Amino acid sequence: MNKGVVLVVDDEPPIRDILSFYLKRAGYQVLLAEDGRKGLEAMAKLQPDLILSDLRMPEMAGDEFCKTVKGDPATRDIYFILVSALDGAVSRIGGLALGADDMIAKPFHAQEVMAKVESAFRIIEMQKEIKRQNQELTRFQEKVKGELELAAKFQMGLLPEIPGRANGIRYTHRYLPAEGIGGDIYTILPTQDGGAAVLVADVSGHGVTAALISAMVKTSFEAQVRLGGGPMDWAREMNRHLCASTLSEQFATAFLACIEPGRPEIRYVIAGHPAPFRLHRGAAGGLHRPEQLGGRGFMLGIDATLPFEEHRAPLLPGDRLLLFTDGLVEVEREDRRLLGEDGLMRLSAELPADGDLAADQLVGQTRSFNHPVEFTDDVTLVVIDRVD
User: Fold this and answer.
1) Where are the beta strands (DSSP E) in the chain?
2) 385-to-163, 349, 353, 355 alpha-carbon distances in Å
3) Which residues of 219-249 are buried (b: 16+ CB within 10 A; e: fewer)?
4) 186, 217 in Cβ contact below 8 A?
5) 189-210 per-position pLDDT tens digit
């Protein structure tokens, strides 16, 4: 059984012979060379696991040979033992400084050399196992990364077009997941009466689990909108579905609303979510006074029996709504200040008429306020302009 390959480099034939004898008897494959240059030639044919090299040799001495081996990325992991007749302490320090892994002083006993070799091969095997595990971990990480990228693309595909139009409204959004894939979701759907249904939700947690639940929330919302009814009905049934389909510690905050054609108002339910801002005539851009919609409510997924309350607010043609998740405003700066909803309202007071530009401006100003701290939670911002 071949226990490994050992290269013996020494300019004295008797030393090469005796080391070769003991190594082969112990089950090692042995390569022999009379100096460092011949050692490199032997390594070009078969790379050893361990090198035993004399320090003082003609042609290429052991110190130069060691530096050459350890300086090459292809061979630097080979275990290298220098053999020297110099003073033990001085020789050991100098040899290790060259990059050698160990030293043996001359004259030596064959048993000492074999003990060193056996010890070295235990280390070599551990290094190989660590390298193998690192390679497996790297492959696993690459696989997970690929799956997360696919999941992130899938999640982005769940979002409406940027920008887009629905019945009587024009909209755009900015979605910034904290981990490439997150728990925020939003959608805008046409309703049976020619209006539009709006959902912005934020699922607890981050990553794949949160993304799966956010997809579930969106699917549940779409199903309820197809069945008809209004925000109160949607919230009640979505809450029941989430309670039945998720763990007790998983929940979602949500803003659900419908904009009906020909009616100068919005009907909505707030389920533990930040209330949107309304800017009267804000779709025209310029300076306005934002108003935060009123109302509070319980989160979805906590208790199937919890009640929800439907609210109404004015929403006229030309009005603008700003919907967001708390990740946009709850970033703790280095001085421990938060922008908060009040700060975002101040930033919203003067925005461009173009929804895309307005969204970019708000995200940019929020980043500037938080600098150098980055967003730590999923961020969603939706700009809705009523045009009918």
Assistant:
1) 5-9, 29-33, 50-54, 79-84, 102-105, 164-166, 169-176, 184-190, 196-203, 252-259, 265-271, 277-279, 286-287, 291-292, 310-314, 320-324, 350-351, 379-386
2) 11, 15, 9, 8
3) ebbeebbeeeebbbbbbbbbbbbbbeebeee
4) no
5) 999 889 999 999 999 887 788 8
- Any idea where the domains of the chain sit in the sequence? 5-133, 159-386
Query: What's the fold here for domain 159-386?
Result: Phosphatase 2c; domain 1 (3.60.40)
- Sequence length of the chain is 388
Residue 157 neighbours by CB distance under 10 Å: 7
Neighbours of 140 (CB within 10 A): 10
Structure tokens at 164: 């887009």
Q: Render pLDDT for 12-68 as a digit per residue (tens, 0 to 9).
A: 999 999 999 999 999 999 999 999 999 999 999 999 999 999 998 988 999 999 999
CATH code for 5-133? Answer: 3.40.50.2300
94 pLDDT higher than 80: no
Looking only at the bridges linking them, the beta strands covering 50-54 and 5-9 are parallel
- Return the exposure string of 261-284: e unless at least 16 CB atoms fall within 10 Å of the residue's CB, then b: eeeeebbbbbbbbbbbbbbeebbe
- pTM of the entire predicted model: 0.69
Q: How far apart are CA 83 and CA 18, in angstroms?
A: 14
